[in-house]
Amino acid sequence: MNEVMDMMTKNQTNEREQLEILTIEQLVPQDHLVRKLDEAIDFSFIYPLDNL
Prior knowledge:
It is a single chain. By secondary structure, the chain is an all-alpha fold. It has 3 helices and no strands. It has helices at residues 2-16, 24-27, 33-40. The chain is elongated and about 60 Å long.
């Protein structure tokens, strides 16, 4: 039984150590509503570039 617990703990620990780097482009599907809204609405009035 201890061997099984050791294996389970070891596998869980290894999964936590993995790192995956993704971009926003990879996370949001091409046909997602957010992309359509971004194309249709000009949000520049919310965040003026000169105030950054």
